[in-house]
Design goal:
The chain has an eight-stranded mixed β-sheet with strand order 3-2-1-4-5-6-7-8, with helices on both faces. α7 crosses α12. The protein folds into two domains: 162 residues, 3-Layer(aba) Sandwich (Rossmann fold); 91 residues, ProC C-terminal domain-like fold (Orthogonal Bundle), CATH 1.10.3730. β4, α4 and β5 form a beta-alpha-beta unit. The model has no long low-confidence stretch (mean pLDDT 95). It is of the alpha/beta class. The protein is built from twelve helices and eight strands. Pfam families: F420_oxidored (PF03807), P5CR_dimer (PF14748).
Length: 267
Amino acid sequence: MNQQSQVAVVGAGIMGEALISALISSGVNPELITISEKRADRSAELIAKYSIRQAPLAHNVAAADALLLVVKPQDMAGVLEEIKGTINPSAVVITFAAGKTISFISKGLGTGNPVVRVMPNTPTLVGAGMAAASMGAGVTDTQKQFVLEFLAATGKVIEVTEQLQDAVTATSGSGPAYFFAFVEAMVAGARDLGLSESDATTLTIQTIVGAARLLEESDKSPTTLRENVTSPNGTTAAALASFASSDLNSMVATAMKAARDRSQELA
């Protein structure tokens, strides 16, 4: 693959748009990106915004060197059935559907196309995503490089064996929702302490954003940063002791295991 490679994007929802933006940021010519999207108004919106193209699904996959499947897990089987008769046999197929294995995609196509499985997350939408990619049989070094490079434009990317994709789903795929739930709980707790909704929200969000930036930019571990803000017998120590008494570590581990198990069930 090279800068003249044709890229097909099937499914142009919010994540699909984020990936289109990443493709362009990584150097792909917008004129070589073609979407297939059932909603005509959505297609028109993205064409106007990114100067990409639109084509019927069968035509799109026949011409593509790389095919991004950005559809819901429950819709994947139908899409594979629809495209298997026309797909370019040398195209790399990149799937973003939670729980759907490389084997599932390969069997659904029955074409022998190389498959890459990716688990992104929603911060991809603001260029701060975390993606994990697993390479299937037959993926060339050039195709692998293409995938990793454009995913890097969404934030950060790592390569993992496919056996770890369910663990990735439970960590980074579902992880933003854990974070948002904690923010909701902090806002509610601040309101219970007498702060207004507006002040509680401002205090909580900026505290979380600042802590995340400190964690990213500091060379210190989360443990060290926690210890630095925790004076013996102080206010932070009292709050952390309450977390410990509720066995926060076990609660989080149990929740992540539930997410991992559900990802396995979706396969």
